[in-house]
Write a structure and sequence with these properties.
Elements (H helix, E strand, L loop, with lengths): L7 H14 L9 H15 L12 H29 L16 H6 L20 H14 L5 H6 L10 E3 L2 E4 L3 H5 L3 H12 L5 H12 L5 H18 L33 H15 L8
Antiparallel strand pairs: 1-2
């Protein structure tokens, strides 16, 4: 379910993998459906939303991405219901829709409610991006699927924003990690400390100051921890709609079946005051940096 924002490389990888595993492959464009909905919005409001790279606001940019993501869910269910009939499968029936959101995207809230994360079952919904990549690397050899190497080396991207080129040279391509403001490796670290080690902002900061100390200052660690918890808190409500997943690890943020925590949080003022108090000691020279 590609769009004008999808790269030819992504389409080629999907087609190659389907061929190697013997799966059906349908390549379609959703642009006409997206355009129909944005035209409807414009007809009602007399307002034309634009992507940020075309001069639009952050709200416009996000809305134009979300409509693509949500339409994919609707189209996936339509095809799942009718493809067996089209293919004249004996007995008819329907197909299950598989979700595609992993633990890290759920932790960060880097997904749209009722998009491709909404499905009948999510095979990767209980594992992090780092563990998922490790499994893909294993499957590449174990199942003789060399095409998987291209998945491992590809830059993770939602491909919901326009690809901007300048005289044939690519100078802007949407990146998951740039959008999220943190790397998948950092997200896996945050998720394990939050769920498995049951650390809040202060405990996580204390732990990571020691671990990341050679690369980052205590204040830089604080900024990363605080930003993670901000993103986690404001997006926690999305976990109430997550698709059932197979839980193979201890760090899943699944709200309904695995991680029974609130989905509305107050501001974490106390731990932030504690960290800032400790930072004054670090930055004022009153506390030696721990090795």
């Amino acid at each position: 379910m590609g769009s004008e924002n999808s790269s030819s490389e992504t389409r080629a990888r999907a087609k190659a993998l389907a061929g190697d595993i013997g799966a059906y492959h349908t390549d379609l464009n959703i642009d006409t459906v997206v355009k129909a909905l944005t035209n409807l919005f414009t007809a009602v409001t007399n307002f034309v939303p634009r992507f940020k790279v075309h001069g639009g606001s952050q709200a416009e940019n996000l809305a134009l991405q979300n409509i693509q993501a949500r339409l994919r869910m609707v189209i996936a269910y339509l095809f799942a219901q009718l493809l067996p009939t089209v293919r004249q499968r004996p007995g008819g029936g329907g197909l299950l829709v598989l979700g595609s959101a992993n633990v890290d995207e759920c932790l960060r809230g880097y997904l749209t409610k009722y998009d491709a994360s909404s499905a009948d079952i999510n095979p990767i919904g209980g594992i992090s991006k780092t563990d998922l990549k490790a499994f893909i690397a294993y499957a590449q050899d174990a199942y003789n699927l060399p095409v998987l190497q291209s998945f491992l080396t590809a830059v993770p991207t939602a491909e919901l924003e326009p690809i901007i080129t300048n005289r044939g040279t690519q100078n802007y391509v949407q990146s998951d990690e740039a959008d999220m403001g943190m790397t998948y490796a950092e997200l896996s670290e945050f998720g394990t400390l939050r769920k498995v080690h049951k650390l809040g902002p202060y405990g996580m900061w204390e732990h990571l100051v020691r671990k990341w100390g050679p690369q980052l200052s205590p204040r830089q660690v604080y900024e990363k921890v605080r930003f993670f918890y901000h993103c986690f808190n404001v997006n926690r409500h999305k976990m109430t709609t997550m698709t059932p997943a197979l839980h193979m690890e201890q760090y899943s943020p699944d709200d309904n079946r695995f991680d029974l925590r609130p989905f509305v949080y107050p501001v974490f003022s106390w731990p932030y005051r504690k960290i800032e108090e400790a930072l004054r000691g670090y930055e004022g020279g009153g506390r030696e940096k721990e090795e």
